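**Paired protein data**
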Amino acid sequence: MYSLKNSENVNINLNDNGKNSIRLPQIPLPEFSGVIAEFSNFKNQFINLISNNEQLNDSQKLYYLRASLKGEAKLLESPSDSFDSLFKALEDRYEKQTAVDRFTCP
C-alpha cells in the first residue's frame, strides 16, 4: 500500500490492486439523551452506522449502543443484557411515547 498526499491534505491510499481509497475522517457515534423528538434521527443513524455493520458482533453493538446513551436514556433497563433487548427497550420507550404525543397534542 502506498500513501500519497494531495494538495488538500487528504490521504489517498493506493492498494496493491491499484484502486484508490481515501481515508475519510471518523464519524462520531450518534448520541441520545432521552429527548423524544430526537429519537427517530438517533435510531436511523445508529442502525446505519452500527446495527447494520456485519463486521460487528452483538457484544460490540451493545457496547456502542451503551456508549451512545446519555442522561435519562442511559438509565433505561432491558430484560436481558443483549443488544437486541436494549435496542427494543429504547424503541418501546421512545417510539411509543412519540406516538402518544402525536395523538394527545393539539
Summary: The CA atoms of residues 30 and 46 lie 6 Å apart.
